[in-house]
């Protein structure tokens, strides 16, 4: 019975680890204000939107607070081309509500996975420590392969797979905004999402490689100890 439970815990560990990492990377990247400021300047968003940088950062802070669940609504007023107006219209607000719900589910999934990861790790340590290195290595190799394939696909046609992403995650077309009139898409053009996607993927790959290295070290140490015992 214990052996079966160990296998279950190993599977849970293998599933939970990449989920915790990728969702955490998404959170860190999405809520990094310095990154937004850098990209606003790089893509000259001030000129495209008619909104000064200070106002853009104010809008961004309010928007991120909304996505975190720290504020109820997303009606924001700021100066656009020198005139005070509401930044997001009804369609943009409806889409942002969907995005907020997506983040809420993502946070919950990450937190549950974190608990599962911790419990499965402790269980493996207690009942089958020898298998830890295998579990760690497998939990890294599978998502590494997936991310490498995804990175290649995104490099070949980012817009195509960005569209698939939205079709999978949203059950409506509210995400289809007009870049001529909708400030939300003016603030966050396709190039912004392209950049942040590769930032997340890069962070994820670095973390996986670091953990994979740890697994290989565990394997090497176990091999050395085995050789010493045989001697």
Structure report:
There is one protein chain. A two-stranded antiparallel ribbon has the order 1-2. Helix content is 78%, strand content 3%. It is elongated and about 65 Å long. The longest helix is centred in the C-terminal third of the chain and has 41 residues, at 190-230. α2 packs across α4 (53-68). The chain has one domain (2-230). It has nine helices and two strands, in the order ααααββααααα. The mean pLDDT is 92. The chain has 231 residues and is mainly α.
* Spans where pLDDT lies below 50 across 5 or more residues: none
**Overall shape:** elongated
**Which whole number gives the mean pLDDT?**
92
CA-based gyration radius: 22 Å
Fraction in helix: over 70%
Pfam family, one: Lit
Protein name: Integral membrane protein
Keywords: Membrane, Transmembrane, Transmembrane helix
Transmembrane segments: 5-24, 107-128, 135-155, 196-218
SSE arrangement:
Layout: H1 2-30, H2 33-42, H3 45-49, H4 53-68, E1 77-80, E2 83-86, H5 90-127, H6 132-156, H7 158-169, H8 183-187, H9 190-230
Antiparallel strand pairs: 1-2
Helix pairs in contact: 1-5, 1-6, 1-9, 2-4, 6-7, 6-9
Annotation keywords:
single chain, 231 residues, mainly alpha, two-stranded antiparallel sheet, 2 strands, elongated, transmembrane helix
């Amino acid at each position: 019975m214990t052996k079966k439970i160990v296998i279950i815990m190993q599977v849970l560990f293998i599933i939970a680890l990449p989920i915790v990492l990728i969702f955490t990377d998404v959170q860190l990247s999405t809520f990094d204000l310095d990154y937004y400021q850098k990209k606003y300047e790089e893509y000259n968003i001030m000129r495209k939107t008619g909104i000064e940088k200070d106002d853009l950062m104010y809008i961004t802070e309010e928007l991120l607070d909304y996505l975190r669940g720290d504020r109820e609504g997303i009606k924001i007023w700021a100066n656009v081309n020198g005139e005070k107006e509401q930044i997001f219209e009804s369609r943009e607000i409806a889409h942002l509500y969907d995005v907020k719900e997506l983040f809420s589910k993502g946070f919950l999934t990450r937190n549950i996975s974190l608990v599962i990861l911790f419990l499965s790790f402790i269980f493996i340590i207690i009942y089958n420590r020898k298998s830890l290195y295998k579990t760690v290595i497998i939990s890294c190799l599978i998502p590494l392969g997936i991310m490498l394939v995804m990175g290649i696909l995104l490099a070949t046609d980012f817009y195509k797979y960005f569209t698939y992403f939205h079709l999978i995650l949203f059950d409506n077309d509210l995400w289809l905004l007009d870049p001529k009139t909708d400030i939300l898409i003016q603030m966050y053009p396709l190039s912004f999402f392209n950049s942040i996607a590769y930032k997340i993927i890069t962070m994820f790959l670095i973390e996986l490689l670091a953990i994979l290295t740890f697994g290989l070290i565990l394997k090497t140490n176990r091999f050395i100890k085995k050789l010493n015992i045989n001697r």
